[in-house]
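job 3f2a | input accepted
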Amino acid sequence: MNTRTLGRLTVSPLGLGCMGMSEFYGAANDTESIATIHRAIDQGVTFLDTADMYGWGRNEELVGRALQGRRDEVVLATKFGNVRGPQGEFLGVNGSPEYVRQACDASLRRLGVDVIDLYYQHRVDLNVPIEETIGAMAGLVRAGKVLHLGMSEAAPATLRRACAVHPIAALQTEYSLWSRDPEAEILAACRELGVGFVAYSPLGRGFLTGRFQRPEDFPADDWRHRHPRFSGENFGRNLALVRAVEQIAAEKKCTPAQLVLAWVLAQGPDIVPIPGTRHVRYLEENIGALAVSLSPADLSRIDAAFPVGAASGLRYHAQGMQTINR
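job 3f2a | predicted structure (326 res):
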């Protein structure tokens, strides 16, 4: 597998998002999830992504168990900042220096590691100057607890202010055929500042794979039931866009998932998608995207079939939209 760079980090061109292994997308199966992580490493995937909020910390614990004896084979990324209560309720964003230090120590314990390779601020806290948050994160680097810093869903102006305090290796933001917001300003800002770009939900939370034909196909406790793009008339409108992707994928002799991942990969060598799955078969399908070559004509056809802004519905519910790109 070739490599890509995020700041000074060298990672596989595809990472593995671990969020759905512990929450949001139906019942968890730790045995299957750990097998998927092991298979990913065996196949050359060296970049694993988790966060302290996923499953109230259970996801970090899961990843930590999976990495026992294999820690040196991966670049391990986790995040802090989204605070949740004892029932899983969202309590807001905290970027205070004291919380930064507390959250890092807690993540290190759950992961069972001595150092975090890439530590993200999960969401920007508007009540704390970004200079204070990044300054505290830089202190973690000096203390040897963290190697590189990252940000998630930060606006370009915020990213510039952060980079003035300490180098930022990566900015993580949702990016896929149906979430192309970063193309307006964020990608240009990252390239100007030498910041790598990590694309989360590159498969549109699974929707762009074509596996879901109706809302009832999602498990009853699946978070996507409350997501605007999977609700009401938006579902059918977005499914029509996926049909066009399926046709192009069939002509390219690949799956829709492989086509849309290849599209993200083709947007620049500084972009690393982190599709999430807890199933080995989908992991291997996703890795197959690395063998899909898209010509300029292919890319133009995909853009015509799924143009910027074509998706129906916001990419988060109202509360979530308040926390992005700030």
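job 3f2a | The radius of gyration is 19 Å.
job 3f2a | closed
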